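Posting for a labmate who doesn't have an account.
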Amino acid sequence: MAKKQKLSHRLFSALLSFLLHGRTRPPAISSRTTATAVPASPPHPSTLHHHHSSPGTQMAEKLAAARTLVLDVDAGLLLPSSSLFPYFMLVALEAGGYVRGLVLLLLYPIIFCMGGDSDAAVRVMAMVAFCGLRASRFRAGCAMLPKWFMEDVAAEGFEAMRMIGAAGGRRVCVTRRLPRVMVEGFLSEYLGAEAVVGREMKMLWGFYTGLMVEEDELVLEKKKKIMGECGDAVGFCGSQEFLQHPLSRCCKDIYLVTREDRATWQALPRSKYPKAVVFHDGRLAFRPTAGSTLAMFMWLPFGVALGSARLAAALTVPYRYSTPILAATGMSWRLKAGGKRPPLPGADGERGRRRGQMFVCNHRTLIDPVYVSMALDRQVRAVSYSLSRPGPLISPIGRTVRLTRDRDADGRAMARLLERGDLVVVCPEGTTCREPYLLRFSPLFAELSDDVLPVGIAVETAMFYPTTSGGLKCLDSLYYIVNPRMCYTVQFLERVSTAVVREGKMPSADMANLVQKKMGDALGYSCTMLSRKDKYRMLAGNDGKCSSAPAWRNDNS
């Protein structure tokens, strides 16, 4: 009986070890077994240097002479306070749905008791977050996670990558805990890593199983390739666990940052990002720690009920009365620049105007025209390239005109609205942008009217982003109204004359750039020449890979 119990215990231990570690544990050695001599592990071939917070001259010289930097992502690039749980929660919620995220949240006490970021805890989080996801549709690593990884990059770790890059060397990033599919897009696209070494997620019939493949064979292959092509290599790490990684033996010198020095590390400022994070996807507008995620799930039932009440008030109550009602529920807006509304056709002092007025605004969400209408206290006609079926049904400004992306047809449609005397709101960017950047303005608006009125739009949300590139666009407006708190800021700028374009004295593209620059200066946003295609190539993969060197326009031009 005792032998059967021991056998069943060993089988259970082997099964548990296989699920957590991908392989069974070696059989335990009985204490009665005669001890044998165990050969000592060979000494590490690298020269170990204790590196301090500020880069020293010796390290700079080594990096300048070396051809490769092997960087420990876990302890040499990210801040020491960075927990891995929010990253897996982002994958679970954004790629798997709210049920999967709830399961991961319920398992958090167990994950915390297992060590939080220990190997066993990471395997459990990876199992919950990835199991059952289709590998071909997984884009969280390049569309959602880079924004959050960039906020956790330490300035000191990035300095090491910058120095080796300035010297023309290769940057090889090693992640010991996170799966490679989660970090490769961020490291290669935004930090310029030429190679990323990490654990792979097992796949079966095109779906992730949730198990991570041991990296022995992959690392050995990478090691031989690096040793054969790169010669001398320098390592940079913040933990002695990196010394056990096979790639550490490729390094001639290794700089180890002590725990005390890492505690003083600071986050990399946005102004020093090697590449601006202009586009990112996902609904969550907050870092999903365990406490924040719990607060979100507790808010959702109340938020759905409150959102329904907000929508009913917006559709049935006039603007002047609905504004204070909605503000009391946390849904507010404000008119910047002294609260002055521009003179409109038919208003005092402008009765001689017969044509309508074109308002040109930057695009933050699908309901931008609604708040322009509220700020004017007048009905407007919005023109848009993409419309979801529920959009016009819940819009308080009436029917929206759909554009076809046919330049001549769209121009005629907007010209008819202006001839009828309508107030036309157009977003020449063609797509939304969440970050403080302006995308390239389509110049069509400058050819249709003698003047345009630029409108600067800014929006703040507390919990959810009301835009998406790979999700269901029909839910964009609903995600906005269930936020606990949100605020729209509308700013009317000075009217810009576009008569010179219609007279042929100025190209329409130059006029579009001029309006873009005026709006960027007023909002404090940076102007780019990125377009809708660039956004969807990066976030949704609809048009292939994103260009490695997107075109940026000089703001002084």
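Reply:
Got it, the structure tokens are right above this. The longest strand covers residues 451-461.
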